Structures are given as C-alpha cells and as structure tokens.
Amino acid sequence: MKVVTFLYDEQIQVGVISDDGKSVIPANKFSNMEDLMEHSSFEELMSIKSLATAAVDLRDVKILAPIPEPKHDIICLGMNYQSHDSEMPSSFDREKIKAREVPVYFAKRVNRAVDPGGYIDGHFDVVKELDYECELAVIIGKEAKNVEMKKALDHIFGYTIINDIGARDVQTAHKQWYFGKSFDTFTPMGPYIVTADEFDFPPALDLRCRVNGELRQDSNTGKMVHGIAYLISELSHGMTLKVGTVIATGTPGGVAMGMKNPRFLKSGDV
User: Fold this and answer.
1) Statement: the pTM of the whole predicted model exceeds 0.85
2) Are 258 and 87 in contact (CB under 8 A)?
3) How many whole angstroms from its chain centre is CA 250?
4) By the 8 A CB rule, do 78 and 51 touch?
5) Do 217 and 48 contact (CB within 8 A), yes or no?
6) In the predicted model, what is the mean pLDDT of residues 233-259?
7) Please, what sign has the CA dihedral across residues 226, 250, 139, 242?
8) Average pLDDT across the chain, whole number
C-alpha cells in the first residue's frame, strides 16, 4: 500500500493511493502522516482505499514529501555500503568500514523536505562541492525502545526514498557532517511511503540515482553492511525511536566525491 501527503483544494491532506495508481483516496480522519501512522490500522487503511467514490485524480493534486516537516532530525548512516566505503578519499579513512565494526551515525536537520520534482537550492554562494546520495529510508510507525532484532519489523510502518544532498566542502571543513548535510532543501523525499507488508524483510530493493539522465548509482539494499533490524535494535537500546522517525540507511557507490575527477552538482542539474 502507498500512502501519500498531498495538496488539494488548497489543503494539505494525507491519503492512500488506489490500486491502479491513478488516484488518491483522502484519509480525512488524520491531520498528517505522523497522525495516520500512530492511530490507523492496516485494516482501516484498506477500507479507506476501497472508497472509490472519494477518489481524487492524481492529475488534480500536488504530491508533497510524505513527511514534509519531520518532528525529529533524520538519523543517517555513513559508509553503510562497501561500494561507497571503497570509493571515498583518504580524508574519510577514520570512518571507513575497514577501521571499525560499528555503524557511523549522524543527524540531518530537515526544516522542510523537498517535494518530488521540487527545487534544491544549491547554496552556491557558499557551496562548491554539492553531492547526491540516494537512500532507502525506514519510517518508524510504532515507538521503539529496547527492541530485539527479531522484533524490529513490528516497529516499521514503511519505506520511502530520500536523497541525502550534502555540501562536501562544508562537511570536510567542519570535520563533522551535520552542518554540511542540513542546509535548507537538502532532503528531497518521496513520493510515497510504501507500507512494510509490501516487501520481504529485510527488503532487497534496487536503488538507483541518475543525474541528467545518466545513471550514477546502481545497487541493491540487500548489500547494506549493517541491516535494518540491527540498526533499529542498536539505536533503540540507547534512544527511544518515536513514531515518524526517519532512518536513512546509507548510500551505495557512485557519488560525485568518489569519482577520480569529481562531477559535483551544478545549477540546472536534474
């Protein structure tokens, strides 16, 4: 099932995408996506999807980021694919997989997630090395505290896609990643959250990123170094993961910084 946040009749709403993918059925009972995740059931969402008479043609709505304004910083994974680890320059040696056995976690501030097809401000007045990183994002739908790995799936509402846009020169200059990853508009998200029941667990999904139509990243989420169950279990043993928490699970190889002659994003790139 695909759930979505959308703009229709000048109102931001949440809803369920129809089976044919051509319309959205509003879930008017819920004020936003976090409210839907916390207070709905699978059966209730299925019943909403069956209300064909309430369907709105997708051509008449604007699809927004599924969680436009996350309540918490996004939890991000660094170096969680061997292909990305291998391509990074020597300045990242301290974080590389070969030097450690535990994940690299960092946070990403998101004041407003960028809608699908939306505009990314490159902040080129201060940024010279703008990079892209496509990632599978896990959305927590049930509060998680001290969760064992075998129970991790019970706390996942679904998955979406984000692109962890980052200013590499700012990131390296500050010797940490928070600021360079958190500029306004640096988190495109969506278009949908696909509920966890749609996939086997852990999901093994193809993950690709294109720049101006050129395939730059091409991998599969089954190649993560640290899997989703491990991440949820470890994190929840130190912090409570609230409903709506977004975990960005890392990016595979193919980013601009990893190239012999880096091809960073420039104005006008898609």
Assistant:
1) yes
2) yes
3) 9
4) no
5) no
6) 96
7) positive
8) 94
